[in-house]
Here is the input.
Amino acid sequence: MAVVHPGPHQARAVHPTVFTCYDLLDGSRSGGIHDFTDGKYAGEKNDRAGYLQAQQRQAEYLLDEIRCAGGSRILDIGCGYGRILQQVIRRAAQGVGITICPAQVAYCRSRGLDVHELDYRQIGQEWNDRFDGIVANGSLEHFVQVDDAVGGRQDAIYEEMFAICRRVLRPGGRMVTTAIHFAETGQVRPEDVQKGPYAWKKPSPEYHFAMVLERTFGCWYPEPGQLERCAQGHFQLLREEDGTVDYHLTSEYWLRRLKWSLAVNPAVWLRLAQKLWHYPRSMAEMLRCQVWDQSWHWQFREPAPTRLLRQTWQAV
Here is the structure.
């Protein structure tokens, strides 16, 4: 696939923390976790069956929002291990996924899914007007990094994202996003997060945010209303749904599953040992973030300092 010549933001390489994050999380497959985004619960028990039902319900919701039907052509930006793409196929539609993670590409292709190892900034002009709908499910948190926030580049990056997505959509197309947001405008100073977690006492908000955003996941969250402002001229916000409680239930299930796997699953021990060999510091800090300090899960526990928003966008 040909690519366009990179613009001022496209020239930025994907942050190495993001690559490391997804390489480490690939070990979760041994413990039965194949997706790292929220489910959509409807009162069922938060056990394995309830988790899987919630994951399927969320996928159906996202595809309904972009009106995915037989013959539709859907782009999944940050497709992970192909959960949404598999639902696209079940609707007799065509799905194309992109991800920066080679392990995810290999997994998806082994299951017959059309997935490319590609940064969304490098989508070529030959994909213009190619898709009826776009899904960005839990991926756009990685598009802005802490140093981008320090440099005040967030709006420009989000504006570019919406421009690229609008370019590849056919007239009348829709886009649906799920993204963690800060609960309040100006809630966190990026300069504080940039110092790293060990500059702060546990369990302060500065410690937890720095552990998640700067040290382990490589991301920065939009503020309330920021995406809608940056989408102007490309998309109109049609609907917004708060899924914070759903993400709380999902992440608590992950925590229980991870603890159980660490206790009894030799396959997980082997995968973690392999990751620890290649990334000793990063693996130790990911375990600290997920299991010991539980900084990831802290984000969604009451009083939750973040919001998970599902947003539906109409191309203009």
About this structure: Strands lie at 73-77, 94-99, 114-117, 131-137, 169-182, 235-242, 306-315. The mean pLDDT is 92. The first strand starts at residue 73 and ends at 77.
